[in-house]
Amino acid sequence: MNLPTEIRYRRYEDWTENEKHKIIENKAKSPWLASYHLEPKTGLLNDPNGFSYFNGKFQLFYQNWPFGAAHGLKQWVHTESSDLVHFKETGITLEPDHAHDSHGAYSGSAYEIDSKLFLFYTGNVRDEDWVRDPLQVGAWMDKEGHIEKFEKVLIQQPQDVTEHFRDPQIFDYQGQFYAIVGAQNLDKKGFIKLYKATNNDVTNWEFVGNLEFGGTGSEYMIECPNLVFVDNKPVLLYSPQGLDKSELDYDNIYPNTYKICQSFDTENTELVGASPIYNLDYGFEAYATQGFNAPDGKVYIVSWIGLPDIDYPTDQYDYQGAMSLVKELTIKDGKLYQYPVPAMKELRSEAKPLANLDSTNNTYELEVTVPSDSKTELILFADQESNGLKITINTKEGQLLVDRSSAGQQYAIDFGRTRQCDIDPSETKLNIFVDKSIFEIFVNDGEKVFTGRVFPNQDQTGIHIQEGQISGSYFDLGV
Ligand code: FRU
């Protein structure tokens, strides 16, 4: 939603209790509130931030402007979880209340160090002429949730970047702390800077070099770069804005992509043996994905189900955005797989055989198999006329197509109403999670993923098998 700058950057303390109350009341009227996905308590949710493990729990913050469905003065909102399925807001926030983050506590990461959580983030600062000074700053969060910001700036804007310099991700590589930061160079091309903590002290950072990852620089900015290690292979997850479509086929306003690499050469600042660039997700929205290597040896990622610069039907209720399910990353036969954590199975009620259903509560999981050499059409969020979200699985030609053109309220139509990807022309397994206005489709245990939203009309609650032979189970999901 387009709101004037004065409203979006109004100081938090200037909002009255009455105004805040109205925003909460308006959101409660939404017919699309999710059941088992994390949504903002109020206002707009964008990037996952500070995804980490600390004090015996998983930590996940989200970027937030609490006063409506717009990108304004951002804060981090803290949630925690024991199982990576149920996330609870704790009331802890990292607010833009310091001279070094006066115009927003922008995205960043977190890491447990000496019984405290180190928060590494971008302080968005603007002067009277609205000129931006992007600062990489830090804070400690203790076990009681008390946050203490560093007085010192950790990384200043380097000479060779524009005002677009943000989203530091800290990671440990062979016992040394490193950080990567997304940047735009003076020719307005996206790139990534690598830093390391001097003597492993995260209050002191030195520049290592510009990360070589086999990128072409066709993007104008790289947002939210993340480096994780899956089976010791570096996997770079990033959001390259303006990426040339000759390099990668994508339909969303901005893609979220990855590369699998063979090794990390810190001497030459290089991700060696980088694969081509791939879409992380083939759906209508998944962005700013953040991941980390957890102490349990697993690699977890979570995505913002939303995109910058898009209006959503929920805007009328003063909120926008949701967090995806947490997905575990693995590599099989050289391919990256993403699949919801095993604890998601605990939300399942008893299995029912998949059949046409006229009214569900739009809160379920389907686990289905489509035979080889066939074409199946499945409509979710279906009404009596079988309008809804159409999923066509063609195992003869090897294609999966998702069409939301007759599912409820339409939006972002400039970017098309269908999404598709190639699949193996053979028997195909799908796990489809539906949550009121969110869907996440996992093909063959996470080889391909489609994430997106639909905003169904009131009568769009059915499941219709229009064509083909599909079999499997339906599970109601309850929290
Ligand atoms: C990505 C992003 C980040 C930035 C944050 C601000 O969606 O633009 O680059 O830190 O959102 O909310």
Automatic annotation (TrEMBL):
A cellular-component GO term for this protein: cytoplasm
Primary localization class, coarse: cytoplasm
InterPro entries documented for this protein: ConA-like_dom_sf, GH32_Enzymes, Glyco_hydro_32, Glyco_hydro_32_AS, Glyco_hydro_32_C, Glyco_hydro_32_N, Glyco_hydro_beta-prop_sf, Suc6P_hydrolase
GO molecular function terms noted in the UniProt entry: beta-fructofuranosidase activity
Highest taxon of source: Bacteria
PROSITE patterns: GLYCOSYL_HYDROL_F32
Keyword match Cytoplasm: yes
Gene3D superfamilies from the UniProt entry: Exo-inulinase, domain 1, Glycosyl hydrolase domain, family 43
SUPFAM superfamilies assigned: Arabinanase/levansucrase/invertase, Concanavalin A-like lectins/glucanases
A GO biological-process term: sucrose metabolic process
Enzyme Commission number(s): 3.2.1.26
Catalytic activity: Hydrolysis of terminal non-reducing beta-D-fructofuranoside residues in beta-D-fructofuranosides
UniProt-annotated location(s): Cytoplasm
Domain Glycosyl hydrolase family 32 C-terminal: 355-467
Listed NCBIfam families: scrB_fam (TIGR01322)
Protein name per its UniProtKB record: Sucrose-6-phosphate hydrolase
Originating organism: Streptococcus pluranimalium
Phylogenetic lineage: Bacteria, Bacillati, Bacillota, Bacilli, Lactobacillales
